[in-house]
Amino acid sequence: MTTKSTSLTSEQNPVSSAVEQRPYKAWVSGSIPLLGTIESPCIKICKLDPKLQYCIGCKRTVEEIQQWAYMTSLQRMAIMEQLLGR
Fold it and tell me: Nearest to residue 25, comparing CAs of 44, 51, 7?
């Protein structure tokens, strides 16, 4: 499967270099094996986008962030897949 990259340049998006380091990008590409726990996609840029209502760093909603520790691996994988479209 090929995917088309729609990343903005660093001039267009000041957090682009941090965004490229998101763990779920490596997970989706297959470079991180699934061995149990899905790590948090947090990249320590925690700021809520007032219009979209999710974190500009990890793209999770406040509810997803709050519930992450209580989610199963399957629930976390579902969130990780949704993050790719945000």
Answer: 7
Any bridge partners for residue 55, and if so which? 48
Contacts of residue 84, defined as CB under 8 A and 6 or more positions apart, other chains included, come to 24, 28
Pairwise CA distance, residues 3 & 62, whole Å: 28
Cα–Cα dist 58/44, whole Å: 8
Instruction: Specify the DSSP class assigned to residue 9.
Output: P
Domain boundaries, the chain: 16-83
Question: What band does 20 get if pLDDT is binned at 50, 70 and 90?
Answer: very low
How much is the pTM? Answer: 0.58
Query: Angle at CA 31, nearest 5°, toward 25 and 37?
Result: 75
Residue with tokens 């629930």: 75
8: helix, strand or coil: coil
Burial of 80 (0-12, 13-18, 19+ CB in 10 A): buried
